[in-house]
Amino acid sequence: MDRIRIRGGRPLHGDIVISGAKNAALPLMAAGLLTDDRLILSNVPQLADVKTMGSLLAQHGIAVEDATPDGRRLSLGGAITNTEAPYDIVRKMRASILVLGPLLARTGEARVSLPGGCAIGTRPVDLHLKGLEQMGAVFRLEAGYIHGSVAGGGKLAGAVIVLPFASVGATENLVMAAALADGRTVLSNAAREPEISDLCACLVAMGARIEGIGTDRLVIEGVPTLHGAEHSIIPDRIETGTYACATAATGGEVRLIGARLDHLGAVARILRDTGVDVDEDEQGVMVRRLSGLRGVDVMTEPYPGFPTDMQAQFMVLMSVADGAAMVTETIFENRFMHVQELNRMGARINVHGASAIVRGVSSLSGAPVMATDLRASVSLVLAGLAAAGVTVVNRVYHLDRGYEAVEQKLAACGADIERLAD
Ligand code: UD1
User: Fold this and answer.
1) What is the CA(236)–ligand 1 centre distance, in A?
2) How much is the pLDDT for 122?
3) 22: closest CA among 232, 237, 174?
4) Of all protein residues, whose CA lies closest to atom 13 belonging to ligand 1?
5) What pairing do the DSSP bridges indicate for beta strands 368-370 and 390-394?
6) What residues have CB less than 8 Å from 68, skipping those under 6 apart?
7) Can you list the residues of the chain whose pLDDT is less than 50?
8) Does the beta carbon of 165 sit less than 6 angstroms from any atom of ligand 1?
9) Rounded to the nearest whole angstrom, what is the distance from the C-alpha of residue 19 to the centroid of ligand 1?
10) What local confidence, expressed as pLDDT, does residue 121 receive?
11) 397: Cβ below 6 Å to ligand 1?
12) Closest protein CA for atom 7 of ligand 1
């Protein structure tokens, strides 16, 4: 497995182009199952997870082709020939569960392996299944697979569904299923992440009837069929926040080209509270740190609250801030796996249940480190950039799942970073 070596202590200065959002691209690709027509997606990020979703769709009979040589424009099309999502693909990426709703809506059946993905807690899919059951699906679990069917091979029916928790994936699965169900679905306590609005915008372009986009109450009038469309994927707000933290942690100044300040939610406000300048200009978002960093408490919450996907990166920032900060994780259990590694680099972090107390230190020191999930991995890269000396981040395949060209983007801003092939 590749490793990344960083010689830290250099402030970042320059421009970073923000890629299309991974967490929008994956459900948008799954939406390709909702029609036999062509769905053209542009601003597609070049990531391992996108390739995995492409393999999964190919398995279902959907051809996923590059419409441009750089792979940033994908053309999806074809009829569903197979309704099984096999373990070998699903285990690589939890978002594979997003094919469940579309497959049931189109064919009345689906057989999907229970998902794997990041090792961050138990991450069940009960909310996806309960919502689809309310729409007429029946499930049984056998040999690690969820077998779903709609009575008599029939159609899903619209339903009134109240999600007990605003799950991103469940909202996406249910919206896609409802788009082709008979009648009206009202989805309350729906998640409001920008990636969900992006999915809804694409579904509307495909002929779906959805009201309340961007709110926690989505009303979907099912239509008999959807058609092809073209859609450009929103910029990745987590990649944006990650490079903003990298800039702040190293004391630099970076323009995040194509980034959208209005998608950052609580991240922009909290970064400003720490003493970092975050401004929008015509090209994107400017981030600069001119003075010291203050410790600020954060709690992860569904959008527009502070995202769990930014928790590890923010903790690095707090590790080199003045004073202490309490970081509380409310979305996932067991999402502090980066803490031990950060402490090996000289951070002073104590975990108490779902909260971590971070006491700022004057500097971190480089070390060999390893991470077990995507955001934890990138937090170690950030720590390496801020630390004195050499850091080697092992097992970077997690990073390649969600960050496009991370070492090139950082090197272009003056970071001393290189990938070491195994
Ligand atoms: C999505 C994102 C992920 C992000 C997360 C929370 C994608 C591809 N991934 O993941 O990067 O960290 O949102 O913002 O978009 N839960 C249940 N039952 C369910 C579904 C979820 O208990 O049926 C729990 C999960 O275990 C977790 C919490 O709800 O504790 C949040 O999960 P959810 O919002 O569904 O996240 P994902 O869609 O998996």
Assistant:
1) 17
2) 59
3) 237
4) 168
5) parallel
6) none
7) 117-118, 120
8) yes
9) 22
10) 52
11) no
12) 23
Contact 74, 29 (CB under 8 A): yes
| HSE-up (13 A, CA, CB side) for residue 300 | 21
pLDDT number for residue 144? 87
**Residue 95 CB–ligand 1 contact under 6 Å:** yes
DSSP annotation of 31 reads: G
Question: Tell me: the pLDDT tens digits for 4-16?
Answer: 999 999 999 999 9
Q: Is 118 a catalytic residue?
A: yes
**What pLDDT, on a 0 to 100 scale, did the predictor assign at position 117?**
46
Task: Give the burial class of 124: count Cβ atoms within 10 A of its Cβ; 0-12 exposed, 13-18 middle, 19 or more buried.
Answer: exposed
The beta strands (E) that lie in 282-367 are given as: 284-288, 298-299, 324-328, 348-352, 355-359
Instruction: Check if the beta carbon of residue 239 is closer than 8 Å to that of residue 406.
Output: no
User: Rounded to whole angstroms, how far apart are CA atoms 156 and 134?
Assistant: 9
Q: Are 360 and 295 in contact (CB under 8 A)?
A: yes
CA distance 299 to 305: 8
Rounded to whole angstroms, how far apart are CA atoms 103 and 95? 14
Cα separation, 228 vs 340, in Å, equals 48
Rama region for 170: left / alpha / beta (φ>0; ψ in -120 to 50; rest)? alpha
Say how far apart CA 91 and CA 395 lie, in whole Å. Answer: 17
Residue type present at position 52: T
C-alpha 287 to ligand 1 mean position (Å)? 29
Q: Could you tell me the end-to-end alpha-carbon distance of the chain, in angstroms, rounded to an integer?
A: 5
164 touches ligand 1 (CB under 6 Å): no
Is the pTM above the cut of 0.85?
A: yes
DSSP state of 310: G
Write down the residue that tokens 């209005």 correspond to.
Answer: 262
> Cα–Cα distance between 101 and 385 in angstroms, integer?
41
So what's the pLDDT on residue 118? 46
Q: Which amino acid appears at position 100 of this protein? A: L
Q: Contact 57/227 with Cβ under 8 angstroms?
A: no
319 backbone φψ class: left, alpha, beta (φ>0; ψ -120 to 50): alpha
* Amino acid type, 378: V
CB 302 within 8 A of CB 192: yes
Cα–Cα distance between 358 and 349 in angstroms, integer? 4
